[in-house]
Every structure is written in C-alpha cells, then in structure tokens.
Amino acid sequence: MRVLSIAKRLIKQLRGDPRSIALMFVAPVFVMYLLSTILTSATKTPNLNVISAPDAYVTKLQTLANVSVVSSEKIALRNLNDKSIDAYIIFNGNKPKITIEGADPSITSLVMNTLNKLSMNSASQKPEITFLHGSKDMGAFDSMAPILMGFFIFFFVFLIAGVAFLRERISGTLDRILATPLKRWEIVIGYFLGFGMFVSIQTIILQVFSVYGLNVPMVGSFWAVLVINLVLASGSLALGTLLSAFARNEFQLFQFIPIVIVPQIMFSGIFDLRNSPAWAKILSKIFPMTYGAEALRDVMLRGKSLIDVKYDVLILIGYALLFLMLNTLALKRYRKA
Amino acid sequence: MSYENVIEIEHFKQQFGKFVVLENINLTVKKGEILGLLGPSGSGKTTLIKAIVGMSEPTKGSVYVLQTKIPSLAAVSKIGYMAQSDALYEDLTAIDNILFFASLYGMKRQEARKRADEVLELVLLKDEGKKLIKNFSGGMKRRLSLAIALVHKPEILILDEPTVGIDPVLRIEFWKEFERLRKEGVTIIITTHVMGEAEHCDRLALIRNGGIIAIGTPQELMKQSGENTVEGAFLYYGKEGEVKNI
How many domains does chain A have? Predict the structure, then answer.
C-alpha cells in the first residue's frame, strides 16, 4: 500500500512538471531521428575523374559512379586536393592507375567496392549472393538501429531516474520519509513502479517511432521487442537510482555517465569485438546493455522469438533485481532499520 | 501498564569517522513534558534527534523510545518529526503533501483527508491547502512541516528548530499549540537557539563540547548559575565546560 503511495506521489509530481515529461518523451525520439538521418545519408556513389581511358571503360564506370573525364592528371590532382572528387583513374596504355584521397576509410572502401564491381561485371562468372538475414540494401543505420534504440532507452531512463532520486535526497525529503515507518525496500519499489509507468510510455513512443516512423527493419514481433526494451529499461531505472545514492549532486551523478553508460554502447556489439583482447570481451559480458543489444538484434533483424532470446532476457531481469536489492542496501546509509 | 519515561538514552555515543560528536549522553524524557535542547550550532542537537528518530545507530549505548530499542519502525510510527529543513514536495499541493505522509503512516484515505483539514487549520493554512508548495513562503513551509509532523497524532513530537524563520506572532501560536498538545499527554522534544523560547520548556538540556553540560528546569538552571536569564545560565555553564548533573 505504501509502495503505491510513493508511486502515486511520483506520478502526481511529474504531472506538475510538463517540461521534464516533454524531455523524457521527445529527447530520445529526436536523437534517434538525427542519427538515422546522418547514417542513412551516407554517400552511395563516389565522384571520380578519369584520364585517357578507353570509351568502353568510361561508359561502364558511369553506371556505378559519378564520372567526369578530364584532360590531364594535374587537373585531377587539383580536384582531389579540393575534395570535389574522391579518386581519379589514369590509364597508362592498358593499365589503370588509381589515386584515392584516402583520409576517410569509408569513402576509400566505397571507391574500392565500386572498382571491384566493375571488374566483377566484366567477369562472366558472377556469384549469386543470398542473405540469411537482412539484405544488400540494409544500411549502417538499419543494422545499428536495434542497439541504438535499446541504448537510448537505457541512457535516458538512467538520467531521469538518477536525477529524480538524487533530488529526493538533496531536498531532504528522503531523510524525512526515512523518519516514517516506511521500509527501505518500499521506497525502492515505489520509485521503481512510479517511474516504471513513465518509462513504459517513453519506451513505447521510441519503439513505435523507430519501427513505423524510421522504418527500421523489423522481422520479429513488435511485442517481443517491447518486452526486451521494458526489461532493459527496468535495469537502467534500477541502476540510475542505485548510482544516485553514491552521488552528492548532479555533477557527481553525471560523472557516472562516461564510466558506466558510454562503455556500454561501445561494448554492446555495435563494434565487432571478435578480434579484441580478452578483457574487452569480458567487459562486454558484464554490461547489461550487451544482452539487451543481442536480444534486440536477434528479434528485429533475425526474426527470433522471445523463447530464442530467453537467456538474454533472464540475465537482464537478473540485473534489474540485483540493482534493486543493492539499492535497498545502499539506503542503509541513511537509515539503519 | 503505565510508564513514565517515554525516552531513555543511556551511555549514548555518536561518532562519524574519527570525529566524536556526542559522548556519554544519559537522558530520560517523561511523558507529557517539553524538553528543550539548547546548544550552539554544530554541538550535536540534530545528531541526538536523528538517533531518537532511528535514522542513525549509536556508536555506543542505547536509545529506547516507548520501551522499544531504536532503531525500530514500530517506535518511529509513534513519533512526529519536523526536520530542520523543510522536506516538502515542491510540485505538490499542501494537501497532497500531507496525504502522502499520512499514507506512509498507514492512515486510511478518508481518515487522512479529515485529519489533513484539521492540521491545516491548526497551522492556519486552511485556505492554502490547494496551493503548490513552490508558491509558499518560508514561514508557510515551516507551518506545513509542523502540520505534517502532527498528522498521525503522534505520542512524541520531535521538532528540530521549528520556529526558525517564523515571525513572532506565529511563534506564539506555535507555542500555544505545543502547550495544548502537552496537556493531551504528548511528549515534545524541541531544539532551539532562541533563549526566549527556552523558558517555555519544562526542562532544558544544554549541549556543549560533546556532552550535556547541564540539565534541569529553567528556574533551576538560573538559580544554580546565579544568573537571571536562561541565556546567562547557558553562557555560565559553557564557561565551566564540564558535564554536570543536577
């Protein structure tokens, strides 16, 4: 009953603070939209200059890239220097010589891919490629979207839960409610439920926006993804309130972000860790975000069911329970009983 | 079973790290008395109060409230506590603040509503119940804090500097209320800097140098010290610097 009093009070309090609510609901959507714009607008065709090439070669190349023929290497070099082209190809007799700008590896590989395609086109034996999951049209954003979505839920929930609980302490109200017969776990669970409601709304908004607004690939079930996201958010909610117990003010709470939050996204599978040192792999196994990312990718990109990812989900639930218990213990600093 | 001593503190010591705030405190508070805790800031008044409310555990010694060893949630539910700083939810109305705390003491909703109106009237905030706390003045917040401390009809009232930032007229109202509660058998412990207030207390405990340097009725203290004001007595005992029992 007292648990519900705390939850109800939190909801009432937040309702009186529309700006925080707006931030909570709008900010993750905004950031997700920005990232999708950046990541899907990457260049698909390179800009090339060609010098003294056979006509057939130029025609074929024009189907794959923006090609202009220039008269001398000097002009091409100048174009390369002012970055209006990505590479130029000069023919010395039959042999093409390629010079690439080279400062941006993604553009370099784009040029290389284009030239590879060119030589493949000319070969009579073109391999047939099929995809187990995804497709050849899947871009960087599509493959990262499940992780990014999970991460932003994790991050914003952490921030808001952490700050709210901290405020309770700074304002002295935590001390005050600890001078009532309220049990420590009742505070922790009350907070969890009260914020849980807002977090659920936030999660649903971001998920609906990602799936229907940004059209990220979604092979699996919407509900399975929602379950994973909510479990992930629960863990983050519990972690936020737990860590706020060790911060004296907002600055100290924010210092946890580079230590606790940022590595989670780096080690969650957004970068390939196969060849990383053992400690990096161990670290990635410690972070809850890794399990959330894995489960989200499995469901959204590979169409797996909740049963297939049950271990990831169970580990996430375990983390949430662990953080809640630690939080109850951490409150002992403020009252013994 | 009737008991006289509502609060019993024995050989109490409180230490934070290496810093000893209070040592060898022995204190009993009788039912229905107003005990004033006097002492310079930093002398440990709030530390003692937090030990009675059960927010800290004594390094040594024991604290009993209503024959129950503290910390105890059962004993805490019989205590009304007003902290030194107003611990109120700024985004809630006065009534919602009271109802929230009432529910933490396990009061039923209807009972709590009735009681909320009563305590608001007691602290002269009847017409401000629906206002948000962020629009309250300092004095109004202090009054609401007192209302919240009273909401569950506690047997013991512990007030940490209740009249700080309150105008003299309202201070008199507060004290009228304290005296009325005392007649009902409520035991009150109050900390204050204001010597004029101290004279209203049944007994005074002067805290200094980590101990109770003097304890007794205001008259006793003045007589013992040969001063004719409480302030004079306080300064006199401060000079002596040693713990006396009267």
Answer: 2
Q: What number is the average pLDDT over the span B114-131? A: 92
pLDDT tens digit string along B146-177?
999 999 999 999 999 888 878 888 888 889 88
> At which residue do the structure tokens 């013991």 appear?
B156
User: Residues A247-304: pLDDT tens digits?
Assistant: 888 899 999 999 889 988 888 888 888 888 888 888 889 999 999 999 999 999 999 9
Are A251 and A108 contained in the same domain?
no
- Domain regions of chain B by residue span: 1-78+154-246, 88-153
Residues A208 and A242 occupy one common structural domain? yes
Domain range for A11 is: 2-39+135-333
Residue B245 has pLDDT above 60, yes or no: no
Shortest Cα–Cα distance, A207 to chain B (Å)? 30
Report the percent of chain B where pLDDT is more than 90: 41
Option in B76, B83, B92 nearest A176 (CB)? B83
Q: Residue A275: inside a domain, yes or no?
A: yes
Which pLDDT band holds residue B118 (cuts at 50, 70, 90)? very high
Helix axes A288-300, A140-170, angle to 10 degrees: 140
Query: Which helix (H) or strand (E) element contains residue B4?
Result: none
Confidence (pTM): 0.82
Residues A253/A259/A260/A262 CA torsion (nearest 10 deg): 110
Task: Cis check for the bond before A258: say yes or no (omega within 30 of 0).
Answer: no
| Closest chain B residue by Cα to residue A190 | B104
B90 touching A, CB under 8 A? yes
Say whether residue A181 is in contact with chain B using an 8 A CB cutoff. yes
Are both A161 and A257 inside the same structural domain?
yes
The answer to whether A316 and A232 have CB atoms below 8 angstroms apart is yes
Please give the structure tokens belonging to residue B147: 């209302």
Answer whether A333 touches B (CB < 8 Å): no
d(CA B230, CA B211): 18
Chain B residues with CB under 8 Å of A176 CB are: 81, 83, 87, 101
Domain B1-78+154-246 homologous superfamily, CATH: P-loop containing nucleotide triphosphate hydrolases (3.40.50.300)
pLDDT band with cut points at 50, 70 and 90 for residue B240? low
Name the β-bridge partners of A66. A47
